[in-house]
Write a structure and sequence with these properties.
Elements: H1 14-30, H2 35-64, E1 66-68, E2 74-77
Antiparallel strand pairs: 1-2
Helix pairs in contact: 1-2
Amino acid sequence: MTETATRPVEELSFEEALKELEQVVDRLERGDVPLEESIRLYERGHQLKKHCEARLREAEEKIELITLDAEGRPTGLKEVEAP
């Protein structure tokens, strides 16, 4: 595993979390990990997946706020409305 495996998931960038998630999946798919470690890896993978999904949602919300002109060219940003 990488040095990110010891850091809290919330501190990881999207790219770091995705890379670690891919490593977790690879190790679990190989099937050569003891049961206790498999459980720990699965739990970490679940946290990483949730983190990546949240970061993607945040990015999608920001992208949706870009305003376009009649030809589809970006013209600016709309302000985020508070819920």
